[in-house]
Every structure is written in structure tokens, then in C-alpha cells.
Automatic annotation (TrEMBL):
Organism of this sequence: Tessaracoccus lapidicaptus
PANTHER family recorded: ARSENATE REDUCTASE
Top-rank taxon: Bacteria
Protein family membership: Belongs to the ArsC family.
Family annotation (Pfam families): ArsC
Protein's recorded name: Arsenate reductase
Length: 121
């Protein structure tokens, strides 16, 4: 297993910057383009289980969110977030970094970009 998994969107400059920092860290790295290799509900629940944030923060409130007719009430619980992101992976915040240190896992949303370096060290 890799030391670090990056759920990455190569079209996002913040995600590209986090990936560059991760590559420079020397950690054994797994990169997963979550748009081409989407997580299922169980995968998102596993991320949420170790996330250092409220699960609803994983969901982007953007034009697509509005077009789907979603509201904050639709992503209020971990199960709802997992269901929405499994069905609509483009709504996931990016990047998401998951540390695997053999004892426990931790995950962060790599926004703001300044949050990435302390997580990697």
C-alpha cells in the first residue's frame, strides 16, 4: 500500500500543485483520477471516516450542484455525501490526500494549498 493516496483532478491547478508537493515529499504515492476511476459509496465512506473535516465539506457547491437541484440538506450526513459523490464525482472537492502510516489513516481536503505541506511532513 502507498504511503499517500491523492484523489486528483488533473484539470485543477490546486490539485496539480498538491500532486507536485506530494511527489516532492518522497512518500510512496498512489494517484487516482477520481473522475476516470470514481469511488463507490463505500470508498467515499472510507475517506469520510478518516477525513479531518465535516463530510459535507467534500462536496463542491457549484453550478453542477445547483443544476442537480441539490441543497445542503442533501449532503448533511456521511451517507448522503457518499451517495452524492458516488453518483456525481465531479462534485468532489479536490484534491483529497489520504495518509497511510500503518497505524491509522488520515485525510484532508487540499484546500487551501497551504494545508498540504504540513500534512505531508
Amino acid at each position: 500500500m502507498a504511503d499517500l493516496t491523492v484523489l486528483h483532478n488533473p484539470r485543477c491547478s490546486t490539485s496539480r500543485a498538491a500532486l507536485a508537493a506530494a511527489e516532492a515529499s518522497g512518500l510512496n504515492l498512489e494517484v487516482r483520477n477520481y473522475l476516470k476511476e470514481p469511488l463507490d459509496e463505500a470508498g467515499w465512506l472510507a475517506v469520510i471516516d478518516v477525513l479531518d473535516a465535516d463530510p459535507s465539506e467534500l462536496v463542491r457547491r457549484d453550478k453542477t450542484f445547483d443544476e442537480l437541484g441539490l441543497s445542503d440538506d442533501d449532503v448533511a450526513s456521511a451517507d448522503q455525501v457518499a451517495r452524492v459523490l458516488a453518483a456525481h464525482p465531479a462534485l468532489a472537492q479536490r484534491p483529497v490526500l489520504i495518509r497511510h502510516d500503518g497505524v491509522r489513516e488520515r485525510a484532508i481536503i487540499g484546500r487551501p494549498p497551504a494545508a498540504v505541506a504540513p500534512f505531508l511532513s
